[in-house]
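User: For a benchmark we're assembling, each entry needs the component sequences followed by a predicted structure for the full assembly. Here are entry 17's components. Please fill in the structure.
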Amino acid sequence: MKRKTAFLLLFLCGLLSFASATGFENLNFSGSLKTEAGVGLWYTDYSGDFTAGSLTAQGELKGYFGNSNIFVDGRLIFDATDFSSDNPEIFSAKVKEAWYLYDGSWWSIKIGRQISTWGAADGLTVTNVLCPTDYTVFSSEKITDQKIGIDAVKLSFGNAVFLVDAYYIPFFTPSQLPLKEGTLMNKVFFEELYESGIQFGKIEKPAVNLKNSEYALKAAFFLPFADFSLYGFYGFDDLPIEKVLTLGSDYYLFGEYKRIGMAGFDSSIPIKDFTLRLETSVLPEKCFANYTESIYERHTEVSGLAGLDWMKDDWTVSAQYYGDWISGRAKAIERDKYEHSATLNVSRTFSGGNLEIGVSGVVGLNYLDSFIQPKIDYAFTDNIKFSLSAMLYNQGWSEKGKYGKYRDLSSVILSGKFSF
Amino acid sequence: MKKIIFTVLAVFLSSALFAENLTGYDIMKKSKDMDCSKTSESKATMEIVNKKGVKRVREVLMKEKDFGSEKKSVIVFQTPKDVAGVAYLSIEYEKKNDGTKKDSDNWLYMPAMKKTRRISGSESEGDFMGTDFTYSDMDELDLDKENYTLLGTEKIGDEECYKIEAVRKDTSKKEPRRIVWISKENFMLYKAEYFDRQNALHRVLTCENIEKIDGYYSSGKMTIKNVQTEHYTVLTRSQIAFDKDISDSIFTVSALERGTIR
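Assistant: Structure for entry 17:
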């Protein structure tokens, strides 16, 4: 981690020095201040507690000189909810993106920390395995939008009909897990662990060296009747595979990151007022944890999604069906052989787009647990926006549901954003 | 000598008569054919004002290129910050020999999600990014979708104009009828009134600062007012240029995602 931070800081200094020395024109700075506060609902274990309480100062620097472009997105975060942890670190700084891009019209090269989104799915992950996720923050933003940048070299080439992106990722970036004991996300994420009396051991990350690099490829085609893309990824699963080991009379949770390969496909097909989205991925011999026997098992995982969007006038309606199947016996790895869910998103804008009211939800069809988020967004001015939403996690007929286990996170969240 | 005078007079009169025999369709076709530049680009500022006088400002960059069988256009939002980088790519297709026309292909890039979405291409009457313009206002005029009637001539300011009624063949549309004023001199649109399904006046468009740039007439300022909500949008164009060299690579999904269109 320290080596990676050093490389990033060196890269950032290099980027800004380069910009200054070459006389980058049109250096443009903009940013935002966003505050978010959430309170647990009355029926949860955190009734009346602050489930979210943060202030984020975001700054963006953009510039270009000829065909060269630079972009830096940094954030300073004050997280008031961290006071509840054993070792409060209420301030943190992140460089979300920092890259240099050379634009050669039909080809380009982008070097640095960057975020790329794959796939046609909305709020669900099928092929979008490239960038890891930040699970430490409880926010009204979709979890699939809380992405962490990867340090990569991306080479792109194509024309009006096709585009190929090839990635070389020398440093593996895992998803950020809420490991800090005492924080709300830690308590909820690892509730079962604490109830079982298991303690945290070490999560082993791959050594930073060439043989632990990751590779990714996307080939997209833009045709009059449809778009479609093919994906390939060879790298590490950004979530660790866990194993419980005994040391003396105590139980410890250890983890390590395992290699995965992914092949995927997606398509978007416009049909009159509708757009049909299809997506599928195959992860052969993916590693899963067998907690009972403290071993790893390999299963092939196949995911698929079908979605339909309708946008007319001020209305947007989007529905998706998602399925995830694994080969072999699933019982020991504590999941169902076939898991499936459905999502629905309905929103309408008013007052020329200043007010947006919507509701989005996902239902796990195995146990009928769900997550529903009604939301109101209002823009007072072009620079000031407010948002009020409820994050409602509902348990189905069993405790096993993916969304139901976060029931105690159900909250009302108010956020405000000032952009400049 | 008399014979020559009579011949000249006859030619002159017949020309005048021929001009006066233009139908509503002919005038609309001439107006549409005015826009025959290979490329066009401009910066536009859109001031969106509600009935309380509260103003919102959007700045966009617009580029268009005619590829023969298709016309491609790109719109990139530059301000405010919340929509900066949002980019819209559209490909409009020429009508086929059988008179049918393929729906346009459209993509919307959202920088917040780092994602480009393919969106439906069928004509949308929804407002364009919170303005009083609609997506169908942005589409190229399809003369076969309306019936035109020349109502006479009228002055708009100092400009003598043909007054034409355009009625949609598909009467289920939000604004099935409009009246347009087309300049007799340069066949540019000077004014339009849009009527809703109840035949009540819905929107009024006025075009000003019409001047010739690079050999083509262009409107530097357009104001569209929704008379029912008293909400209006003023679109002011600057840095207008025609037939300049614009790389084909600008009109691609890749260019939207790179964010380097300027």
